[in-house]
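User: tokens in, sequence out, please.
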């Protein structure tokens, strides 16, 4: 397995056939992949399912974030390019 790097940046841009996803690690490694709209939907659904499970587990033990913390959460270094 390749060395795992922490995510430092990613970009998502629309292409004529779908989307281009570019991911960069903190060690300078990067990857670019094309995805169809259906593949991007599958990624979104998988992330939503995973985050919902994490949130439900945190709520069960009483360690879930309060509403004020939710408003302040954001993701650094995320770029969404609307240009085609």
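Assistant: Sequence out:
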């Amino acid at each position: 397995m390749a060395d795992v790097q922490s995510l430092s940046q990613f970009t998502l841009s629309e292409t004529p056939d779908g989307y281009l996803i570019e991911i960069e690690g903190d060690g300078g490694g990067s990857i670019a992949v094309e995805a169809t709209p259906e593949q991007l939907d599958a990624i979104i659904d998988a992330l939503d399912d995973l985050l919902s499970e994490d949130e439900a587990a945190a709520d069960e033990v009483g360690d879930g974030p309060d509403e004020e913390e939710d408003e302040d959460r954001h993701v650094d270094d995320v770029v969404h390019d609307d240009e085609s």
